[in-house]
Structure formats: structure tokens, C-alpha cells
Amino acid sequence: MDNSKRNFLKIAGFSLLGIGAHPLKKILASKEEPKFLPPPKALPGKRWAMVIDIKKCKTDCYDCINACHQLHNVPNFGNPKDEVKWIWKEPYEKVFPGEENKYTAEYIDQTLKGIEFLLLCNHCDNPPCVRVCPTKATWKRADGIVMMDYHRCIGCRFCMAACPYGSRSLNWRDPRPFIKTINKEFPTRTRGVVEKCNFCSERLAKGLMPACVEACKEKALVFGDLEDPNSPVRELLRSHHSIRRKAHLGTMPQIYYIV
Amino acid sequence: MYDTGKILAGIIIFLGAITFPIWYDAVTGKAATKPEPKIITSEKQCVESATYMRDYHMKLLHQWRDQVVRENMHLYKGIDGKTYNISLTNTCLNCHSNKKDFCDQCHNYVGVNPTCWNCHIIPEEKG
């Protein structure tokens, strides 16, 4: 036997090197092309937001609501208890509760009487719905959109309780029979799933503006990137006084109203 | 041996009962037939090879779902180098337009009931 201690250590040393071979092979072989790619025409944006010029918004006009609800297969159950809504209208008192004082009645009567405010998901910077969701079915994207993954929603409605804006609706029944004309490009929802506005993430991926913005003939809705100082939303916020719904709650809503 | 007749009769009845699935098909002539999914399309190639799709389409669809909804990845590079828009109704069902003769064939055979169609829309079937 010429197996000296020296030879034994040599062999042991080389064997140890061998352990590193597999991870090394993995690193060298990982030049594989990615299988999944981002949409090429997507609108670039770091923080999407919307400015609504309420003076331009016509009371009897429902173009934006119709466009949105048709595009996204939003059912109409014809019953306020079961109502499912992505974008809707409410009068001032209901939209900005707590803002009134003894004299606002005078002011509201004069300028805001009969004006209905357009409401949708505020895509909050600090979304309470996301914090309470037990399944991560809702989350905030890097570009600020509060998304829903209907596949993961278990219908617990914690998010509905958490949202101070009533932006979320549950499908108490199968919504399919209550959709007038089904848009085949977009899926419907199923029973026991919560739904809400998605800031038209599917249209942004195609390089299109949200459907409500496009549908508005008065150009009352302006959509854009808040992080871009030259964006139309920033321009409007610079030049006008704007208010947000229940901003004192700390949710940092990203729908701004010019009144 | 006591009660030979009763025991034998019992054994015969028992054997008959447990072999029910075997002789039932032979007697009624309703043997389960191998599913034969049909595709009506001019495309030659799916996003991955046919064998891969046969074995793993459910996993691929789950991956597609998570990537498009959660990661905002809307395109998939297929085996042929082409990129496909990730969409069940608008990409998969373009070729596999006959759900009854394609999807349902195997799904019924193996007794699975995928819930995809509760939300995703099935295009109207031709013929």
C-alpha cells in the first residue's frame, strides 16, 4: 500500500472540488432565453393615477360607465343589494362625508348641486384591501395598480370590509346570465368572487388608455404617470386645486378630483 | 363440511360482485373507448411539443395564468421560436376551437372537471 497520508489528502481535496461542479454547470448553462416576455407595446408608467375634472363631467352622461362595464363583462343584477360596479356615480355628500360645515350647504347648493361624482377604485398607495387579503388575491403592482387575481379569490370579503370607498363588489350569484352582451376578449367572473376596477391593466399592456378615459367625450378623465413631471396628470395637479376621497385615512388614494 | 352449498353460493356471489367492473362492459357492450381528441386547425405546431402538451398542459396553463396576471408577462416564446399572446380564450382556443371534441374528450374520460370555463369564455363551436 503506497497510500500515504499525502496522497489521501490530495484525493480528498479533488473530491471536495467535485462538489462545486454541479452548481457551476448550472450557472454556465443558465444562458437559456426567458420563456415569458413583457408586452412590447405597453405604456410605460411608474405610478398610474387619474385626475377627474368634475366640472366637465355631465350629469346624464354614462359613457364611461357603459364602456367600462361592457368591456369588462360587469353584470347588472338589477338589484342594489347584489350590485357589482367598477365605476359609478354618487352625489357630493356621499363621496366626501365629513367635509360639510354649516355653510357648505350654501356652497354645495350653488356649485355642486346635482353634480354626481364619478367613483372608481382609488388604486391607493397604501391599500387596506391588500393588507387584509388572506390569499394574496389582491396586491399592488410596481406601477401602482391594485390588481385582483380572480383565480385566487376565495370570496371572504375582507377586502370589501377594509376598503373605505366601497370599490369592491362580490358576485353573490353566477354573473354570466346577467351580462347583456359578453365581450369575448375578457373573461367573466364566477360566483363567490370579488371584483373591482383594474385601471384597464389589459389595455395598458396593449398601449391603450383606460376605456373610461377613451370613452369620455368631455375629456373630464385624465390618466397618466404621476412620477413623470411632464405628464398631463401632473400638469393638471400643478395648475388646479384638487381633492381626494377620505385622504385623512392614510390610504393615499390616487384618484384626484378637480372641483 | 357444514353448509357447503351456502358457502359456495356466497363465494360465487361475492366474486361476481367484486368483478362487476370487468364483466359489466363485456355484458352490456359499453366498453370504455379510448378518447380521441380532434383538432380542427391549419396550424402545425402548438406552443410546445405535442407530447409535452399532452403531459403538462395543465401546468403550463397555470404558469401562463400566474405570469400574465401576477407578473404582467403577456408573451410566451414557443418551441418554434414564435411568440404567443398569453390568453386561454384568445390564443389556445383559436386552434382548439372545438372544446367538445378536444378538451372534453380526455377530461370526461379521466373524470376531471376543470373550472376554467366558469369565467373564461368558450367560443361558439362550428359544426
What does this structure look like?
The complex is a heterodimer of chains A (259) and B (127). By secondary structure, chain A is of the alpha+beta class. Chain A has helices spanning 5-19, 21-29, 63-71, 92-95, 104-112, 128-132, 158-162, 201-204, 211-215, 232-239; strands at residues 36-37, 48-53, 87-91, 116-120, 138-140, 146-148, 169-170, 194-195, 221-225, 242-243, 255-258. The relative contact order of chain A is 0.21. The model of chain A has no long low-confidence stretch (mean pLDDT 91). In chain A, strand 5 (138-140) and strand 6 (146-148) form a beta hairpin. A four-stranded mixed β-sheet of chain A has the order 9-2-11-10, covered by helices on one side. Chain A is elongated, with a radius of gyration of 26 Å. Chain A has one domain (48-258): Alpha-Beta Plaits. In chain B, a hairpin with a 5-residue loop joins strand 1 (75-77) and strand 2. Chain B is mainly α and 127 residues long. The longest helix of chain B has 21 residues, at 50-70. Chain B contains five helices and two strands. In chain B, 9% of the residues are buried. The N and C termini of chain B lie far apart (67 Å). Chain B folds into two domains: 1-31; 50-118, no CATH class. Chain B is elongated, with a radius of gyration of 23 Å. At the A-B interface, strand 1 of A face helix 3 and strand 1 of B. Strand 1 of chain A pairs antiparallel with strand 1 (75-77) of chain B.
